[in-house]
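Service request form, structural biology core

Requester: graduate student, group of Dr. S.
Request type: structure prediction, single chain
Budget code: on file
Notes: please return the result as structure tokens.

Sequence provided:
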Amino acid sequence: MTINLKKLNTHRKQTFSLPPLKRLSSPSQALTFVNARGFIYFCPIKGIDLPSLWTAVAGDRPVADKHDDPGHITWGWKDDALDKKIWYYAKILRGKATLVSLDVAPYFYALSENYGAPEEDYLIAYHEGRLTQASKQVYETLLDNGALNTLDLRKKAKLSNAKDSEFNKALEQLQRDFKILPVGVAQAGAWKYSHIYEIVSRHFPDLSEQARKITESQARAKLLELYFNLVGAAQLKDATKLFGWSNEIVNRTISKLIEQNVLAKATHPEQAGEWIAIPKVL
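Core staff response, request fulfilled:
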């Protein structure tokens, strides 16, 4: 089967919210956009095809450098929603800012290194070499002190003298593993802007129990199905790049979805290699 480029382009215009669809113009529309897709990026990421809030608001163009660009209204929407629990926001996919609907968040959480004991899980990860020393210090600081802005967190975690990259990598690692997330913004630091971080199990206390009912294979199948519904068609390498899973795991999961007629193997009329597509674009 060959991908129909006209159908694929039409599908992507809908999922990415591109013309002739109207641009998003309110926080409520942004929430509807996220919920309808399951997960999106906050801003477009070079080299990865995935809908983003920025593109749906500002159009298919690079994120503007000018602070007064109309597209930057998305920052206000995102910051205002951090403590509202209307979606799950953190640096997740490839360590980039990701918005996840609350219905889909448990599927991501089911694939994390969390087993329902926030005071113990991180220690297991640390002793097994899956959590850095800086990440351990950051997590323990939040565990002992509650929510903290970035400046206070770094100080209390005794990482003031550490390299910026070491501290930032710790924040990213803990977010990607669904251990911490930003829950607000504080007027702190030179720019009077600092994220406030909290432990996930405190901010979303039901998330662990919701994820407990989901097996890893179910979680991967759900997320891959959502991904292909978003992009219409992609190659196996695109999925492994986005989720960070092995080729074997992605291939096995896709094979099951093909058996269920959710996805299909296809060829691209203009690009080489084997493609996977949803039946709608064939």
